[in-house]
Amino acid sequence: MTKAFGIILPITIVLGLTVGFGATGQAQGFTLCKSTFALCTIAPCTPITAKEVACRCTVHSGYSASQKPCQPSKATAEGEQIRSRYYPVKNYIICDNDRPWAWCLDKPCIISKNDPNAATCTCDAVKNVGSYVIVTSTYRAAACTTGIISSATVQGITQITDYLKENEKLLAPFPIQVLSATQHG
Fold this sequence. Notes:
This protein is mainly β. It has one domain (2-184). Helix content is 9%, strand content 41%. It is built from 2 helices and 17 strands. The protein has helices at 154-166, 181-184, and strands at 2-4, 7-9, 13-14, 19-20, 27-28, 31-39, 44-47, 52-66, 74-75, 80-83, 91-95, 101-103, 108-111, 118-126, 132-135, 148-149, 177-179. Strands 3, 6, 7, 8, 9, 10, 12, 13, 14 and 16 form a 10-stranded antiparallel β-sheet that branches. The protein has a 3-stranded mixed β-sheet with strand order 15-11-17. It starts with a strand and ends with a helix. The model is unreliable at 1-27 (pLDDT under 50).
């Protein structure tokens, strides 16, 4: 949804097929939204509890993908709340280890009162759900072992990219390059 002159306009497209994207493999369809959203693709995160992390994400406006119905931003006691959504990526590294990472898609985020281009999102801490990706423009072996980063499973990023290919008039995916040590070593 997007705001125009104080009116909320729904701009949602729902694909009628079921695909799994969740960290736990839950089956859901995707939705394209046009609004302000948090992009957590490369967000560094810090633990809050054993099951939650706080991720420092960037704020963007335009089309993005979600697994839940589009929602406009809303005022809360903590500040303006938006949702984390997916925007196409160009490159990533595949990680196959039990390191925890953050699952942020559709999670609530509060825009910083001091920096309108930054938001803190409360995301799920996950691990041991299969191969996952670290979005980066260059290969670094330490990317799979350092810190907690917002991520998605390989299966999930493939499924959402396939969905975007079917809806590319609104949000076209990039050709994705999987980076490896042999290409950059």
